[in-house]
């Protein structure tokens, strides 16, 4: 059992997972700062209050039921998703596309007429040798 655990821990996927968790925890602070410091104040400035905790609140005996907290959590989730998409995913995709384009241009240069003719001859010879 210990041998199996040792193999699991020393596998690259477990180490990658640990690194991902640490980076994710550090990244959470960035996203939280973006939502709490920029997006929520903008919503508060436009609509008056950045949370909906007291919306539809009612009392049953001494308890206060606050369904607005679920609405606030859903809106915060959507805000985090929007912030991640537009401020992280879109720029990273653009960066990946920019990195990919020069490599594609270098690997597939435009063939001259002579080179295209040689490729065609090669393909014909290969087809004929396969049929024989």
Q: SSE layout and pairings?
A:
Layout: H1 2-10, H2 12-47, E1 58-60, E2 63-65, H3 68-107, H4 113-131
Antiparallel strand pairs: 1-2
Describe this structure in words.
There is one protein chain. By secondary structure, the protein is mostly helical. It has 4 helices and 2 strands, in the order ααββαα. A two-stranded antiparallel sheet has the order 1-2. α2 packs across α3 (68-107). The model has no long low-confidence stretch (mean pLDDT 81).
Write a concise synopsis of the structure shown:
It contains four helices and two strands, in the order ααββαα.
Descriptive key words:
132 residues, mainly alpha, two-stranded antiparallel ribbon, 4 helices, 2 strands, 79% helix, 5% strand
- H/I helix tally: 4
DSSP E strands, number? 2
How would you spell out the order of helices and strands?
A: HHEEHH
Proportion of strand residues: under 5%
Q: What share of residues is helical?
A: over 70%
Order of strands in the sheet with most strands? 1-2
Major beta-sheet overview:
2 strands, antiparallel
What structural category arises from helix and sheet content?
A: mainly alpha
Query: Could you name the ranges where pLDDT drops below 50 across 5 or more consecutive residues?
Result: none
Radius of gyration: 29 Å
User: Could you tell me the mean pLDDT?
Assistant: 81
N/C terminus separation:
59 Å
Report the principal-axis shape: elongated
